[in-house]
Amino acid sequence: MNTAVLNNKAARRLFLERHGLSEAPQGEAHGAALLSLIERLGFVQLDSINTVARAHDLILFARRPRYRPKALKRLYEQDRALFEHWTHDAAVIPMGYYRWWQLRRERDAEKLRGQWRDWRRDGFEAQFQTVLDQIRDQGPLCSSDVGAGEKRGSGGWWDWHPSKTALEYLWRSGALCVVGRDGFRKRYDLTERVIDEALCKPQQDPEHTAATIDWCCSGALDRLGFATPTELAAFWDHITIAEAKDWCAGELAAGRLQPIEITGADDTRRSSYARPDVMADPALDTEPTQRLRVLSPFDPALRDRKRAERLFGFDYRIEIFVPEAKRKYGYYVFPILEGDRLVGRVDMKAFRDHDVLRVRALWPEPKVRWGKGRVAAFEGELHRLIRLANVSKIQFEDGWLRAPQ
After folding, report:
1. What Å distances lie between residue 176 and 189, 200, 327, CA to CA?
2. Residue-wise over 171-205: b if at least 16 C-beta within 10 A, else e?
3. Is 350 helix (H, G, I), strand (E, B) or coil?
4. What helix, strand, coil percent values describe the chain, rounded to 5?
5. Given the DSSP bridges, would you call strands 176-182 and 185-190 parallel, antiparallel or unpaired?
6. Rounded distance, CA 338 to CA 288, Å?
7. How far is CA 197 from the centre of its chain?
8. How many C-beta atoms surround the C-beta of residue 281 within 10 A?
9. Which of 151, 174, 177, 301 could form a disulfide with 105 if both were Cys (CB 3.0 to 4.6 A apart)?
10. Which helix (H) or strand (E) covers residue 345, if one does?
């Protein structure tokens, strides 16, 4: 039997459709419609950097331009339709998936206890009961509300006081839930007061680990379209590569997977797995919208930098930790999507005290011409984006349109 081959254009179309970037950005963006979008993506990564808009807000706005941050806050904090935990990073996740985080919480409980003891956080375990009792008595608290009298450093993620570490550990291992944020400070409450008992009751079934692996791999494949075991394991970041490999072998033997070769932007092929009916998927023949849009650097379609480079020939690196003199592009540069191509990247920032979005520089991708039509489309996207950025004006710096690098 010959292995199916997916050409690069078809692979990009399938991948973008799975990430909600193939159809025109439109539709309702609150309540059930917003929850449905998040379920389609699986989760939405949270990030505090707000040069134009926070990552989670831009991820949702790119697909639903009617979206406003209050809609996510309501869904999360009032409707309790979402919970917060870790995938590859902190994320908001549909509440219906909570039961599938038991394995992650169990593994975090074992792994982090040892790691954090070694990471200059001596004494955090002694604060567990004190922190739990304080939250039980006082209600949801932030890290600044606990640990009175403890020595505090800079407050950065590398310098937690013992009670802050206890909070994070109790959240990651399941005793606490994050119920919202004040600014970007997490508020923690007892899980028993937040999560429905049917969801938070531990599964004692010895098959629960196998069921979780199946849910993780199957859900990841549905959202990626095609994947290697490494990519399946990394999607939710719950399970090991070995577990994903075993799952693929079992599904392949059962006829629920097929091997497939994916053609990259450089015409090389990579072995992956897909559903048996992948070659008949309508997305392969569906032309994506040509609507130009700005993406977050943490957009689900770009989160796996290696996959983005293989599929789109788009080499992207976050340069926030790179000294300014050594940056190739800028502190926080936004990729630009048009159709099934990433056509450029833009360095821009909202200065809310001056009510302006300033565009410092835009670099087209190699072999992409930025003529009047594409510039006009970009300006149209910026006029939509300033509503999310909470400014009313756009300013282009001299020489903003650069040569490709």
Report:
1. 6, 11, 40
2. bbbbbbbbbbbeeeebbbbbbeebbeeebbeeeee
3. strand
4. 45, 20, 40
5. antiparallel
6. 9
7. 27
8. 18
9. 174
10. strand 341-351
Angle, alpha carbons 235-237-243 (nearest 5°)? 95
The pair of three-digit structure tokens given for residue 395, joined into one six-digit string: 């300013």
| Contact by Cβ (8 Å): 220, 229 | no
Measured CA to CA, the distance from residue 115 to residue 102 in angstroms comes to 20
pLDDT digits (tens, 9 = 90+) for 200-218: 777 767 788 999 999 999 9
What are the structure tokens assigned to 14, written together? 């399938």
Quick: pLDDT tens for 160-205: 788 888 999 999 999 999 999 988 899 999 999 999 888 877 776 7
The radius of gyration computed from the CA coordinates of the chain, to the nearest angstrom, equals 22
Residues 6+ apart with CB under 8 A from 90: 45, 46, 84
Residue 363, helix vs strand vs coil: strand
Q: How far apart are CA 253 and CA 272, in angstroms?
A: 15
Contact yes or no for 247/214 (Cβ under 8 A):
yes
CB atoms within 10 A of CB 83: 23
3-class state of residue 84 by DSSP: strand
Instruction: Report the interhelical angle of 102-117 vs 162-173 (nearest 10°).
Output: 150
For residues 303 and 349, the answer to whether their CB atoms sit within 8 Å is no
Q: Which of 374, 363, 368, 367 is nearest to 400 (CA)?
A: 363
Tell me the C-alpha distance between 359 and 222, whole Å: 37
Q: Could you tell me the two tokens for 196?
A: 């429905």
The verdict on pTM exceeding 0.85 is: yes
**Spatial separation of the C-alpha atoms in residues 29 and 68, rounded to whole Å:** 8
Length of the chain: 405
At 276, list the tokens. 């048996």
Q: CB under 8 Å to 239, separation ≥6 — which residues? A: 103, 212, 213, 216, 217, 233
Residue 71, both tokens: 């809609």
CA 22 to CA 285: how far, in whole Å?
11
Q: Is the dihedral angle over the CA atoms 220, 226, 228, 229 positive or is it negative?
A: positive
